[in-house]
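Researcher: Structure for this, please.
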Amino acid sequence: MLLDYIIWNPNPDIFTIPGIDWPLRWYGVTWLLGFLLSQQIMFHFFRKDNKPEEDVESLTIYIFISSIIGARFGHFLFYEPYAFIENPLQIILPPYAGLASHGGAAGILTGLYLFCKNKNYNYLWMLDRLVIVVALTGGCIRMGNLINSEITGKPTDVPWAFIFKQVDNIPRHPGQLYEAIFCFILFLILFFIWKNRRHEMYNGMIFGIFLIALFGQRFLVEFLKENQETFEDSLSLNMGQILSIPLVLAGFYVLCHTFKKKERNSTFKNNETPSN
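Model: Predicted structure, token format:
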């Protein structure tokens, strides 16, 4: 029966760095790959929109630091809040196990705000471009989760089920792969929208679409994933779903706000009196 499914048992370590006995892990490589690809795409965005390309390097530093800090603190705030009292050093010291995507999102929003304030960019304009590469990076990170055999799905008998040998011998939904594929598709869709429609779209539209699509998907796919912490078993919705709801609502708010602004401007233009 087990031969009917995909047997999954990769080594999460690529090799151990000599001298310091520190393993280089595939998960870290997927993080880095996502950031490097995202940086090159942001260079492309800035060139096409006639913005100084040197600002992309500063932006990368802001986002890299803020996303890691946000994801790290978010994990403990949402899933292990007792650590802030019982063992606060665990939060800031290696091996840095535990990163929350919702915390990473909060960190990115904060880091981007500081960047825009320092460099005098429109916040929504920057968000419309940044979320495109965030989708790409998110897909890379979920592939790292897959290699790590973590964030596994619930038991299933679908023919594409994975048996995560490092977890158990039960066929499960590859939830990480579902999310990775969705993120890559979302990246392509948002990039297409930016390439073909950006000159006729108001600031914030791509950002709103991103929030609704990504966290709407996150809410749904959580039904196929195992809870990360035992306290979630007593909840009607798990923590990932609870945290996704306000972000989806925020996406609808942003879209409604931009469409209302577009309608007001359209009405204003149509009511203009031609000059003689």
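Researcher: Any notable elements?
Model: The chain has a mean pLDDT of 87. The longest helix spans residues 239-270.
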